[in-house]
Batch of 2 targets.
Target 1
Amino acid sequence: MKNPKKVIVVGAGAAGLYLACLLKEADYEVTVLEADGRVGGRIYSLLSEGQALELGAEFVHGSSHILYDFCVKNKIKLYPEGETFFVYQEKVQSLSDLEKQPLIADLVRDFLEFYQGHHLYKGEEISAFDFIKNTVLETHQEKEWEKVLPYYEAFAGMMGTSLRHLGMKAWAMASNRWSAGDENYRLALPYQDFLAHMVDFLEENLHLNKVVRHISYQEQTGAEVITEQGERFWADAVALTVPLSILKEKFITFNPILPERKAEAIEKIGFEGAGIKVVMQFKVPFWEAQMDALIGATVAQEYWVSSFQKPNCQPTLTAFVMGDKALNMSKLEDKEKLSLLLEELDTLFRKENQTPPSKHLEAYFVCDWAKKPYIKGAYSYPSPHSHFERHHLAAAVGERLFFAGEATHTGGHFATVFGALETAERAFEEINSFVKKSFRHL
Ligand SMILES: Cc1cc2nc3c(=O)[nH]c(=O)nc-3n(C[C@H](O)[C@H](O)[C@H](O)COP(=O)(O)OP(=O)(O)OC[C@H]3O[C@@H](n4cnc5c(N)ncnc54)[C@H](O)[C@@H]3O)c2cc1C
């Protein structure tokens, strides 16, 4: 009689590794197939002269979740994000200074109200761009709208896209489901270090450079996974943790094809085929010591100080480029991307008789996530009419195919590392209940 406890996990990002560990711990026979030559997926830390640089996930968002608890338990220091928001409006200044300027104060107030209260939106589905533009234009001129548009785009950038691609209703519903807390932290250690103990635990269960291209599954017999290299793996169940982009592109084929409702969810949930981080190290900081993040620029939606309050770190500024801006920037060579950003920094921080920022640059690292063949973009976002779709994306297909990974999070924690971990816990419970059921049939 076949062993009903053999599971293949496709993908070794946060979700795949954690799910595989949970399964192994519960005595499942687990095989992890990862396409890339490294684990971590969208967690990607580089060490530059002892300093960790994060080309993917950088922040721990909130404190009510498993990842925060893990850091506390393992005494990993977390640096809270700075509280002073800086904005560009003719010059770089703190948001509180800008709020004192009568000509712009109420536009800024509107922005902050939206930032803190967008989850209260109760109307019909409409793109965030149309909703915000209509609201601002009720009381202001077109040219004033253009002044504050970059602030709203920075907010959309955090969601991994541009305003035009966000659905107000889907966005509000997702934000209402968020329950992790509002604080943000940077880790003292490289982000990917927290994966190390999982990799050690999995040992020979983990197979790198295995690009899964086809999965056949049958309720009666089980599932077979075929890689690009033609290797075949058999299991009772397969858990897919690949990015949504991989499913959208039909990079993996299924026999039988995925149910119609799941295919519809794959199509409807937003996932931009773009997302760029450029991490720049400077000889000296040219920004104010209280500045952690800067919005209001146009080449990048946001710049932030990755070295903020971290001891012994070279001054490091990260440019965060998402959505349509990233789609355009992705067409350029890395050096051209850098030139555009430095040109913008020279303009934003221009001061009489002072050396421009570009002259202080020492090193830079570009990560264009669209170019990563097994990621192909950034992370999922609430596109119009996608508010109930994640349940369909997450749903198991019979008792053979299971789905985890950030995009399958139904509780508002998609697009985060801890959210990906939470989906692994959900998929583990589903697989467990299937095994219990199978035993009942014996
Ligand atoms: C630029 C950027 C910044 C971010 N910043 C933050 C942040 O500050 N804080 C935060 O919490 N989150 C952040 N995120 C989001 C976070 O990184 C992701 O939500 C999380 O890492 C996703 O984990 P996952 O396991 O779902 O997917 P992934 O990490 O993408 O893992 C999926 C794995 O599947 C593999 N794979 C794909 N196709 C195949 C195939 N055919 N066969 C086998 N394997 C395959 C991939 O190589 C990958 O390793 C950021 C993401 C990006 C891109």
Note: The CA atoms of residues 60 and 185 lie 5 Å apart.
Target 2
Amino acid sequence: MTKKQHIKAGIITGIVVNYGLKWLVRNDLSVGLIYSIILGIIGEILPDILEPPTSRWHRKLWHSKKMIMYMALLVLVLLIIPLLKDSMKAGIVIVLISYLIHLILDSRTPAGLP
Ligand SMILES: [Zn+2]
């Protein structure tokens, strides 16, 4: 997928996850709209910053199926364990879910994920 497509997905993911947390989980578990968009974009472009798409074989650990599992687990742990402030927790969850969406989108391409 192109960087532009990932950025669009990040904007949508940031907004949807932020309002999802607010409405489905708890009213105070959210960040502002602009923050949710910025965090969504960060999570969505992060895998390609960690492993720049310089060749067809750029997808390694940070783009792997294992990473999908780790990210999903981290989201659950963050939501269950009361370690961080709600706004910080919401921000991290938005970044992690955007990262997950990046991997899911990349997995649908012909190259797939390792
Ligand atoms: Zn990628």
Note: The first helix runs from residue 3 to 25.
